């Protein structure tokens, strides 16, 4: 999904390591997150300024079921698997995710523990929107909050219409 997003022009490649995205890259990536589709460029820049890149080795856990949410992750490179520990102690693999996919976005809005464990299947880089920085942006910019409420309302309506 973000394949071309990560290619670098010569000027950028000379000024940063090949894996280092720029703040502008962060804005483009955030603009493709379904939760953030209604945000303006200025609002995306506000969130992009808080992003952090993180790297995980193969078999390393990005997030563990039951832990508090630390924020949203956009997979930049690599691949992860998502598992859910069932009440009977068995582990159910839910799915795998590839570059461009978003995981953990609901943790930005609720204080519920992680509902699954996410493990890198290979070396993986992610862009993280930390929960505390995200919530600070919501407190400082009411327009972001209102737009996110509209997105969540649409999602709820869609979910309800599928059940009717």
Description:
The protein is α+β, with helices and mostly antiparallel strands and 164 residues long. Helices cover 34% and strands 25% of the residues. Strands 1-8-3-6 form a four-stranded antiparallel sheet. A four-stranded antiparallel sheet has the order 2-7-4-5, with no helix packed on it. Strand 4 and strand 5 form a beta hairpin. The model is unreliable at 1-17 (pLDDT under 50).
The biggest sheet amounts to: 4 strands, antiparallel
- Strand content is 25-35%
Give the topology string: H per helix, E per strand: HHHEEEEEEEEHH
Q: Name the average pLDDT.
A: 85
Strand order of the largest sheet: 1-8-3-6
Unreliable stretches (pLDDT < 50, length at least 5) are 1-17
Helix share of residues? 25-40%
Q: How big is the Rg?
A: 17 Å
Query: What would you call the structural class?
Result: alpha+beta
How many β strands by DSSP?
Answer: 8
Shape: globular
Distance between the termini: 32 Å
Number of helical regions: 5
Write the layout of secondary structure elements.
Layout: H1 10-15, H2 23-31, H3 41-48, E1 52-56, E2 61-63, E3 71-77, E4 80-85, E5 91-97, E6 102-103, E7 117-120, E8 124-130, H4 131-140, H5 142-163
Helix pairs in contact: 2-3, 4-5
């Amino acid at each position: 999904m973000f394949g071309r997003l990560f290619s670098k022009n010569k000027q950028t490649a000379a000024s940063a390591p090949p894996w280092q995205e720029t703040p502008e890259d962060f804005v483009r990536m955030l603009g493709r997150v379904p939760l953030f589709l209604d945000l303006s460029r200025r609002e995306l820049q506000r969130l992009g300024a808080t992003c952090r890149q993180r790297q995980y080795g193969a078999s390393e856990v990005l997030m563990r079921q039951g832990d508090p949410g630390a924020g949203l992750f956009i997979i930049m490179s690599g691949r992860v698997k998502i598992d859910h520990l069932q009440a009977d102690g068995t582990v159910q693999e839910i799915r795998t995710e590839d570059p461009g996919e978003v995981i953990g976005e609901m943790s930005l809005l609720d204080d519920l523990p992680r509902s699954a464990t996410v493990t890198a299947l290979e070396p993986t880089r992610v862009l993280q929107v930390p929960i505390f920085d995200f919530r600070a942006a919501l407190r400082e910019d009411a327009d972001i909050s209102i737009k996110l409420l509209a997105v969540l309302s649409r999602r709820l309506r869609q979910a309800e219409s599928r059940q009717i």
